[in-house]
Amino acid sequence: MVGKSVSGEFYTSAMSSQNAVQRFVIDPAQADPEAIAVIDAVTGRSWSRADMAQGVEQAAAVLAGRGVQREQRVMLVVADTPTFLWFFWGAMHLGAIPVPVSTMLTEKDYRFLLTDSRSVGLVLSPAFEGTAGVAVTDQPYLGFTMVEGDALDQELAAAGPAPAPFAATDDDAAFWLYTSGTTGFPKGAIHRHVDLGFCTDVYARAVLGMNDTDRVYSVAKLFFAYGLGNAGYFPADTGAVVILNPGRPVPDEVADHVRTYRPTLFFGVPTFYAALLASDIADDTFAGVRLGVSAGEPLPADIHRRFAERFGVEILDGIGTTELAHIFISNRPGQSMPGSSGTPVDGYRIELRDENGNPAPDGEPGRLFVAGESVMAGYWNRTEQNRSVLSGEYMATGDTYERNPDGSYSCLGRNDDMLKVGGIWVSPTEVEAAIVEMDEVLAVAVVGAPDADGLIKPKAFVVAAAGVDPTGLDDTVKAHVQGRLARFKYPRWVEVVDELPMTATGKVKRYLLRDQEGAVEPRS
Questions:
Q1: Which residue blocks in 66-144 are alpha helix, DSSP H?
Q2: Cα 375–Cα 379–Cα 381 angle in degrees, nearest 5
Q3: Comparing C-alpha atoms, which of 196, 419, 401, 249 is closest to residue 318?
Q4: Does the global pTM surpass 0.70?
Q5: Region class of 50: left (phi > 0), else alpha (psi between -120 and 50), else beta
Q6: H-run or E-run covering 384
Q7: Longest dimension (CA), the chain
Q8: How far apart are CA 495 and CA 464, in angstroms?
Q9: In this predicted model, what pLDDT tens digit does every residue of 459-496 receive, in sequence order?
Q10: Which listed CATH number (3.20.20.220, 3.30.1360.40, 3.40.50.12780, 3.10.129.10) goes with 2-403?
Q11: How many helices and strands, by DSSP H and E, does the chain display?
């Protein structure tokens, strides 16, 4: 497929009328079978491109042997291991739909996801047998469960030849990704085979310059849209080596992996970059990294600055969503604008609209709408939500942004996060960025709360840095913000908490904070 980018240049998608497995697995294995594709960061074991192609074909054969048909869903609750990739691509090979979901959910969550997706199969890692494994009872659509380990390895090894790859068209669904649930129940976003090639071409290649000399390490897991691109299909297509960490990311362990395997591209989320800065890892840990990337939530300018000063790595902040598969606004290497998401990735068109649907002027808040090839086909069985977010070619992301004079875009928060204080819009993101500058603060989230007159004012939930006495921290935070921002933006309440409620993908569940009772003060 050929289309025109926002810069006026033409991009070409090699994915038209082709199963993604052909481009991302089969062709690379045929071109350079001995090239290393995947390294396990814990064991050091590696797999070549030929190994990966064999694993995918075996997984496709196993699924076919289990009776999986085209368009049927197979759910993956799998750690970041080759098994995830084998069954992700293996299902797609058949024309079936892999549905990766978070490995950090509860039995209740998995019950909902299995029923909602009508998955006929479940593949899981042993660590999740106590949650996802228990959720399989009384599932009306589920036909089988497979657990990663020796028995599954033997089944893969004994599998016969797989059918030829399903001949996909531009409209065929390839995989689903469930939203992270920052606003409530997750929704299944349907993506096509062409989306994978488009995101790789316009972002991995064009923005990051990812190629076969790169080694990739992603803190964001494969089940997350961001991590799936970072560590899944981007390196598969560009020839980069991916270093997978099957465990939970912890700063000291991640630092050990980075020193051992020397990745050149490091993908994280703002919360983890803050955790790395708060740790005592060596300042030369990231000496081999040429670029850091951040997404998931806006990266505070202070974290961007401090990471570059301490570790010598430029972080490219950007915004992507589950519904668009990956990043569509991004900073560029050597041109990062701290506190900004950057400029549109070529191939995407951006509109900011006011409350009446009219174009928002530069410097004024506007609701973010995006058009581009990777916009989801829609949410599964969510007619009302589809009608509310899909507008012709454009999709409403639910984010509020403003366009800066230099053409870059800055995030002001989710649409329902924006606060009107004294008749003036206040961005919680701006207040959070001011607070997180403080050495005493590890993490913060700002929401609106009613005062004694029922008027909305900012309230901050703060996690104190290690070793900090929280006594008096509320007043310190208020004074700091009043010294940095206009007075009406300071948080009228500051509550020190042990941790913030987070989704599995590292986003704050602000709706849970808004639901809490806030202290009431006089007018201010």
A1: 82-94, 107-117
A2: 155
A3: 401
A4: yes
A5: alpha
A6: helix 383-389
A7: 74
A8: 10
A9: 999 999 999 999 999 999 999 999 888 787 899 999 99
A10: 3.40.50.12780
A11: 16, 28
Q: What is the pLDDT of residue 6?
A: 38
Burial class for 101, CB neighbours closer than 10 Å (0-12, 13-18, 19+): buried
CA distance 402 to 25: 40
Angle 73-76-78 from CA coordinates, rounded to 5°? 170
Q: What pLDDT score does 92 carry?
A: 98
The domains spanning 2-403 and 418-514 adopt the same CATH topology: no
Cα separation, 348 vs 4, in Å, equals: 9
Band the pLDDT of 424: cuts 50, 70, 90. low
Counting beta carbons within 10 angstroms of the beta carbon of residue 274, is it exposed (0 to 12), middle (13 to 18) or buried (19 or more)?
buried
Reported confidence tier of residue 451, pLDDT bands at 50, 70, 90: confident
In the chain, where the domains are located: 2-403, 418-514
Closest C-alpha among 473, 151, 507, 204 to residue 326: 204
The CATH homologous superfamily to which domain 418-514 belongs is ANL, C-terminal domain (3.30.300.30)
Secondary structure (3-state) at 259: helix
